[in-house]
Amino acid sequence: MKFAVDAMGGDNAPHEIVKGSVEAVKEYGIGVVFTGDREKIEEELKKYEYPKELIEIIGTTEVIGTDEAPVMAIRKKKDSSLKVAMDLVRDGKCEGVVSAGSTGALLAGGLFVIGRIKGIERPALAPVMPGRKGNFMVIDVGANTDSKPSNLHQFAHMGKVYFESILGYVNPRIGLINIGAEAEKGNELTKETYKLLSEDPELNFAGNVEPRDIPEGEVQVLVADGFVGNTVLKMFEGTFSSMMKVIKDGLKESFQGKIGGLLIKGPLKETLKKYDYKETGGSAFLGLKGTVIKAHGSSDARAFKNALRQAKKQVDSGFIEKFTDEIGKYMLQ
Amino acid sequence: MKFAVDAMGGDNAPHEIVKGSVEAVKEYGIGVVFTGDREKIEEELKKYEYPKELIEIIGTTEVIGTDEAPVMAIRKKKDSSLKVAMDLVRDGKCEGVVSAGSTGALLAGGLFVIGRIKGIERPALAPVMPGRKGNFMVIDVGANTDSKPSNLHQFAHMGKVYFESILGYVNPRIGLINIGAEAEKGNELTKETYKLLSEDPELNFAGNVEPRDIPEGEVQVLVADGFVGNTVLKMFEGTFSSMMKVIKDGLKESFQGKIGGLLIKGPLKETLKKYDYKETGGSAFLGLKGTVIKAHGSSDARAFKNALRQAKKQVDSGFIEKFTDEIGKYMLQ
Q1: CB-CB neighbours of B278 under 10 Å
Q2: Which chain B residues are closer than 8 Å to A253 by Cβ?
Q3: B242–A257 C-beta distance less than 8 A
Q4: Model confidence pLDDT, tens digit, residues B247-271
Q5: Is some CB atom of chain B closer than 8 A to the CB atom of A251?
Q6: pTM score, two decimals?
Q7: How far is CA B134 from CA A42, A166, B137, B172, B279, in A?
């Protein structure tokens, strides 16, 4: 199993990307093809011992920045590290691609270079997030805006197959993110989508889920338009990080708080480990003919290694075949 | 200054509603007209000493439940505590209404009984929330879904006048909630709204604000469609409360965590005080010809008293007159 790695993407490229990939190669026995500045990649590789036959480099001359218009960049920068990595998947030379670079360019490349599974209207970006009682996936978190009900219906099936094949759930609960619990609540999109989901016998539909309940993690697959899903994801991250700062600063204001703060430091770190994106891997871009994982832009070696582990898991699970089968069975008839 | 109080609305009606209102009457010198079950209200009132001339009761026979279709309920239940309270504002007998009952019915009543300020397309529900660096308002949090750009443009002006007149800010920063920082990011609604806001010389427009940055509280007025705004509000509350449970449970798992947890309890409570909705009052429903405050459904006496304080502040500030003036000057020409 071989993955294309965009060695130039992310804040810590190429050093942390190369380091994490080498660790993944050694730990998981996967092969890696780096795309990017050959000289720089070779320089990084010199630092490590690794099985030579499992790592290749394809030298490229361009890099797509996070501030570039994504579709244009993918079309014009044909020798960019990301585009060439995508080509490797399209041509069947790699099973998937992992990048910590521009999300927009990754989405554009996934769509236009790798391509959609037949029958899929809109691929979706779908991170798995840590809830209090269990993991949950928000699908979509920004690959699409102004989605249609049929798009969200497909997202529900994507999430279902993901939880079944990759995470080993039986009949995962599917929820529709909405601003009220009742069927008739929400906007035009959610009202129509509610009907589609509730009438689909293949889905274990739990009804509307209000954003307040999402962090509890009682429903596994949470379907939403990308604008709303992205808002959920970013509010989750933003509230968490802002709260931590508030608590930290607040405890510093009294002697008792300071002492207590020192004592809880270790236990708290342990407790909050599951909220560390470096442990959880990246966001899967689902609905494509290849495995595409977006690693966090500020990924270090550990985070990138885990993103590659996630890519391997997705291929191991046969997700794409199973999902293609699901779409063929239930949605193209 | 007199306010209509829906004595039957909320989880703790009428006892906490009556108690909080009596406290508000004594503390702020306002008058209160209770609408609801006369007998029950009188029974509660017996428990307290208060200036008799400042409290009246109008007996009503119906109550609107939180599970009823709002518009229908407001139209049919003409002798409900909420509808009669709204009538008092419409007829100029009270300056405003405060209710802890059904949000939907409050919105419907505001719209159909009290009515919009001339020129206002859509009134909006707008809570002020505690950010790390300062308070911020999300407008709208659910009075409207499928909003138009011109609606959001008016929300920006409502928020501006609110921060200037009620909270004493000079030229508050206005942001558009969006899933990317650049002007061309987002959905059809945000792209169009961005243009309107950035071209309006009366607004101190700070551009797009990503949900991740909202809890920091650096931008005062955050404009959004009600579906997105509600998602922001509920994710803020849900993530906060879920996190607190995670931390509490996590600290219990080790001896050191337990001791530290005991020590930080007091300082933490002090630090997190500003996140207690019981302190902050309710959500203002803006754009109407009267002051309408939605108190939290589970309000106790303290929370309800603070909602009345907020109503008084809004009337004191001349918000409605100032906003009517603003709308007349900049948006009807």
Answers
A1: 19
A2: 267, 271
A3: no
A4: 999 999 999 999 999 999 999 999 9
A5: yes
A6: 0.94
A7: 49, 43, 10, 12, 15
